[in-house]
Structure formats: structure tokens, C-alpha cells
Amino acid sequence: MYDCIIIGAGISGCSLAFELSKYSGKVLWLEKNNDVADETTKANSAIIHAGYDPEPNTLMAKYNIWGNKIIPSLCKDLDVPCKNIGSLVVGFSEEDDRTIEMLYKRGVQNGVENQRIIKQPELSVMEPNLNSDCTSALYAPSACIINPWQFAIALSEVAIQNGVELRLNEEVTSIKKDGDIFIVNDTYKAPLVVNCAGVMCDHVTGLIKKPDYKITPNKGEYYLLDKSQGNMVHHVIFQCPTKIGKGVLVAPTVDGNLIVGPTSTNTDADDYSTTSAGLKIIRENAVKSVPNMKLQENIRTFAGLRARSDTKDFIIGEDKDIHNFFLIAGMASPGLSSASAIALDIVRMMQEKDYFLNLKKDYVSTRKVVRFKEMSHEQRKEYIEKHPEYGRIICRCETISEGEIIDAIRRSPKPVSLDGIKRRCNAGMGRCQSGFCGPRVQEILANELGVSQLDIVLDKNGSYILCGRTKENGDE
Questions:
Q1: Cα separation, 229 vs 203, whole angstroms
Q2: Of 12, 73, 151, 440, which is most buried with the most CB atoms under 10 A?
Q3: In the annotation, is 203 catalytic?
């Protein structure tokens, strides 16, 4: 018997597991994939929004503002890259000027701090590569960029260290209730269940009742440009939003690249494809903001899914029909910005029901990661003397050592795929996208896990890289 079962290990589930792990109580955490942060959390704009965009008096506005205040310090505690660079919503016309004024007023109502409207020539001083046709912008200095998957992984590592039990490859296929106790997958029992299943939230709710909301997966396609383009802009650059979303953005990443996108297309829950039509839309719109960036310096394209609800807001809290069945659903943008605040509020709701009242005396709340490329020459020399595996650079694009890869594998939850390693320590994240280091990472991963290299997948289960030896004739 558990005290709570969490369903889903994206940023919402990771945030909740982290917060619950500080309290006495048994928490079971179920995830259908072979790793955490392997859906929406791994493929988004990687921005902690300032909070001027959500409609006032919505849950999105409430949790965005709250999350923006607490996530930077959380990232510092967990040794996760997060940079407070601010954002600009740029305008090109009188109509855009009116939109910017509206966003400013909305930001004031929501509680965004220190935002202001700026004009030329200050705008060009702040962003020299911005289109000179830009006439004004809303500047929100509290916006941040982050590594979202490393944030989720860090939260999960600490949660597990504090005693949360994570079961990967455990898709939830049934939820029943026997009196006050939920029975999940005919096996796991608890008085509390929290549905954090992302684009599948309405499906999971449908296992116990007819859902009174609908989630539509909405695909956003992106370009990721080489670090040669990373200094083209110094803030997150948005265009004025439209009815379908925030539009195409151009932003630095915490690793020094440039991210450009996304599109906005309703799709299926397993559609992560990129399309020539979608990428064309990005190109045509992005150059309106930053005309001189070189999109031919692209090192990869990718797509992510947003969980948009028909309520046009987050769905947070106890289900109105099912006692002690909690929802963290509809987590489209600003979901990443809001997840930590929502987790705190869900814990508060549980405590009002007399669950998770006793704070552990010895819970862990911090984490430290060794990043070889950030060390000085002397620090590297000293560290290699104690840990020789750090002297072998595996990923030359990102200067990632064998020691960092091994450390990532030995932490829990253990990665079992090349992309799992990439998300933890950046091996394979550079210009060649694992072209050179991939086979070596695969070998290290297989050795550490005690499995054949044939068993190592690229990402999700079934995404095999190797199928046999070359020129093998079966006569071995």
C-alpha cells in the first residue's frame, strides 16, 4: 500500500515527486516510457516565461508568475543551467504597438515585475541584429532560459534519493476504486492518485470516469542552430502573439545554440515528425525578427507536443467527481514555467486532507554535477589524477568526458538509451549530433548496464540502433 501514486514523469510529475519526497509517506511513480522527461519536457522552447501572456485571473497566470519566482533558485540548488536573460515581444506596426500595450497592461494585472515598453533606438542597442523595422517591444527582464530535461531529471534524481519509488516501462492501463482506495493496473494501491500524463491526461482520466475535458496534442516544430549563431540575439525574441499562439521565437539556449520556432499544428499523440511545410513557416517568420541569422547553420530539427485543453486553461486539483483523484492537466505553455508552483499547490491540497503532513528531518534538496568543460586547467588536472576516466574526452563537440557519462549512468533513474545520456550530460548534443561519439557512448552504456550493444536503443523502446554484426553469416 502506498500513500500516493503519481502517473507520468514529465516536468509535472517530476516536480510533484520532488516536493512529495520531502515528506513522510510512500510515493509510487509510474511512467510508460523507459526514462523520465521523454515527451513534451524534452522538446519545447525551454523558456521560463515572465507571465504577461496568460489571461488575468486564470490558473495559467497564477502559476506562471509563482513559478517564475521560484524556478531560478531551484535550478541553482539542483545545479541545472538556467539563465535570466529577459524577453522582448517585438512589434513592426501600429497594430503591434497596440498589442504590446495590451500585453503590458495584462502583465501589470498578473503581477509581472519590472517590465517596460521600449522604443528605438534603445531596442537596436539591446539587440543589434534585430530587424531595424522593429518599432517597439515589451521588455520583461524576469524571463529565463533553462535546460528543461535536465531540470526534470534533477528533480527525479533527488526525489528517488528521498525515497520515491519510480517504475519505468509501466503504462497505466486500468484504474479502479475500492472504497477509498485506488487500484492501479490491478496491482498498486493508494488513497491518492495524481494524473500528470501530459497529452494522455484525458485518456488516463477515462480509465476511471468519462473525462469532462479534452486534450488536443498540438505539435511545434523547431530548428536548433549551431553555436556559431548563438550570439545573434541576447534575449528571447517573440513576435506579437496571434490566436494560435506566441508565434515564432528566436532565442539563445543555455548551451550556446540558437533555437528557432515553433509551429502550431493539432496532431496525434505520437506524432513527432518534422515537415518541410512546417519548417518553411518557421524560416519565413523567423527572419522577420532576425534577418541576418544563418538558418543553414542548422544542426537538427525536432518537434514537441503541447497538451492543449478545451478549457483553454490548466486543469489543476481534485476531480469534481472522484474523491482524492487529482489532475495536473492541460499543461501547454506556460506549463514548464508553472510546474514547480503547481506541485507546491497540489501538496498543499493534500495536506488539507491530512496527507503528507510530516516534513522529513533529513531530506535532500540539492544536487551537484561535475561538468569537465567548465573546470579550469588546474582543476581538470587535479580531477583527472583522482578520476582518470575524466581525462578521456568522448564527445569532442561538447567536451564531455567518459567520467561524466559513467556518472550519469550510475545515478538513478538510470538512462538506457543514447538520448538518455544526451539529456543528462550533453554527449551527442553538439554539431555532429552523435555522429562521432555515438558508437563510443553506446559501448560505455552497454558495459555499465551489463547488456549487449544490440540492446541499446536511441531513445524509446524499440528504437534500436544495431541489428547485428556486419557481414555476419550465422556461422559463428
A1: 41
A2: 12
A3: no
